Amino acid sequence: MTPAEHTTPEQLRHDAEEAATGFPALMAAADQLAATISLGAHGRRRSGPGDEFWQYRVAGAGDSLRDIDWRRSARADADFVRQMEWQNLQAVHLWVDRSAAMGYRGKDSLPTKGERARILGLATAILLAKGGESVGLMEDPSPPKHGRGQITKMAMRLATTGGHTEYGVPPGKDMGRGNRALLVSDFLGDWDHVLAALSRAADQRVQGCLVQVLDPSEESFPFDGRTIFESMGETISFETRRARALRDDYLARLAERKDQLESLARRTGWMYTCHHTDQPAQAALMWIYNAIAGPSR
Length: 297
Description:
Elements: H1 9-34, E1 53-58, H2 70-73, E2 80-84, E3 91-96, H3 113-130, E4 134-137, H4 148-158, E5 180-185, H5 191-203, E6 207-214, H6 216-220, E7 227-230, E8 237-240, H7 247-268, E9 271-276, H8 281-293
Parallel strand pairs: 3-4, 3-5, 5-6, 6-9
Antiparallel strand pairs: 1-2, 7-8
Protein name: DUF58 domain-containing protein
Organism: Neptunicoccus cionae
Domain DUF58: 57-258
């Protein structure tokens, strides 16, 4: 069964109310963040075979008479060629972890991991859409699409926390050869799920990037004395009187996980970065956009 088949009417109503509440703020924040990145006059748009008009240019050597737009040329002293926007088969699939674990933050002054992940994911989609790319969420079975309407649809989905599981699992999806993908998560859950997701993508000749979002306290482990560690989903709880004694083992495990992610990305032709929620979101967005929208590696 799919997750949707287990969803109750009460859960659907809760998700709808949550999306209605969080959607405007998420869209505004993502639009504002995306606006800090300049794509130039046309972003990544370029001329080539396609169905959508892009621009006129003055006819030059090598253009045939049938290429000339005579109606536009009649209004000027030069002949103009009507250029169409190049439409390639590349699409970008995004997965933003919305599990319970992403609701963590060490300080009230910082965003949760999930808030930062959703803004980064949606802002990336906005930039790609402006550049003419088609985008979509990996949990959506329909193919990625162009346009602002698709961005709105994605924002409505991302505005819900989706925190019904402790840790997020990248969904399996059939993606076209040459497509790209962006996975944003803390990647602290079951390693086998991450390995399976990237192995599946590699088999489909899909390239992309992994963005690990962590709270700074998860890197520093500032806990000491008697401490109760409880998972965000409240299904796991551990109490200790000597939290500081756990620090070295914890940091070693975290470093191992980061090394696993970086090594896996390298083997599959992907890219990896770790972003902390106390760092500027703009720098992370620029890295993501360059990694996703850059040339094939």
